Every structure is written in C-alpha cells, then in structure tokens.
Amino acid sequence: MSGRDDMHVPLWEIARAFLTIGTIGFGGGMAIIALIQDYCVVRRRWLELDEFSHGIAFGQILGPFAVNASIFVGYRLRGLKGAVVAAISFLIPSVTLVMILSELYIRFHHVPSLKAALNGIGPVVVALILAAAYQMGRSRIRSLEPVLLMIAAIGLMVFLKLQIIAILLIAAAYGFAKIKFGKAGNSDENT
C-alpha cells in the first residue's frame, strides 16, 4: 500500500478523471496507460509509480489491460465502487465512439481521405507507446539487470513468439528464485 491510504477521492472525481481519459485517449493499451499514469500518478498523485506499475503488470494477465488499469486505480482509491465507477466512466466514451465510427466506416469506407487519415494515426500511436515505455522505464532502470530482462522479454516475444502471460510467469519465477537464493538486494537487508 502507498502512503495515500488516508486519501479519500470522491467517486465523482474518479468518474471525471476516467471519463476524460476515455474521451481523449486513443491508440490502445500503452497509449492509454500513459494517460492514466500522467493523470493519476503524476498530476493527482493518487498512487506511487511503483504501485501503478504493479497494477499494470496485474492488468496484463487477463483482458484489455487499459480497462484493467482503470479498474485497479479505481479499486485502489475507493474499493469496489471506485473500480466500477472507473471502468464504466472509462468505457462510455470509447463504446459510444466505436458505435458511431463503425456506422460511419460502413457507410464511407471507400472514401480515399478516410483511408489516408486512418493510415496517419499509426505512427502517432507508436510514438505514444514509446513515450509511455520511456517514462515508466526511466525511473525503474537503475542497473544493467532491468535492461537485460527487458531485452530477454522482447526476445521471447519476437523470436519465440511467447504469449505475454508466459513471459510474466517466467519473470515471476525469476523474481521468486532471486528472493529464494538471497540475491534480492535491499529487500533482504530490510527484514
């Protein structure tokens, strides 16, 4: 738990935050995660970066992890009610927009300017994902070990085509082994 256990964030404020993120966010998973991190960790200081990072890791296990991240933040702030409010507020804009855009696409998918606009969004999404990864990784990389773990994870995904859940399980096993064999660093000194 963070030092914010005594913080009482009103449900309306959680709703407003996730309605805004759901409205302005586009580009999928990591692009949305960058917005959630900026608003909930950096601006509002509702969670610490480490706690948020753990929530992101949990959220990748099942389903759409941007939705899971909003549920995690809402739950952390206000329990089950906060989780429900965050999830619904986050989803309302995108569900509404997808329904509208689907109808428009069905009617106008043959228009060349629409095709060009859709092609232009791709590079922006990649930039948002890279910016989020840099921002989250910048404070966590304090030695060579995280860099090697990142390279190994990328290698497992790209070359061996392992699913994210398998990579997360391998990382968890590595962490448990590290603790079991006494190479956990500062955590052993604090006990």
Structure, briefly:
This protein has eight helices and no strands. The relative contact order is 0.10.
Structurally, the number of domains stands at 2
Distance between the termini: 17 Å
Instruction: Enumerate how many helices there are, as a single number.
Output: 8
Give the % helix: over 70%
Let me know the average pLDDT.
83
Regions with little confidence, pLDDT below 50 for 5+ residues: 187-191
Major sheet summary line = none
What structural category do the secondary elements indicate?
mainly alpha
| Cα radius of gyration in angstroms | 19 Å
Order of helices and strands: HHHHHHHH
Measured by DSSP, the beta-strand proportion falls in under 5%
What spatial form do the alpha-carbon principal axes imply?
globular
* Extended strand count: 0
Describe the structure.
The protein is mostly helical and 191 residues long. The protein has two domains: 1-109 and 120-140, no CATH class; 141-184, no CATH class. It is built from eight helices and no strands. The chain has helices at 11-24, 29-43, 49-59, 65-108, 112-138, 144-158, 164-180, 186-189. Helix 1 packs antiparallel against helix 2 (29-43) and helix 3 crosses helix 4 (65-108). Residues 187-191 have low confidence and may be disordered.
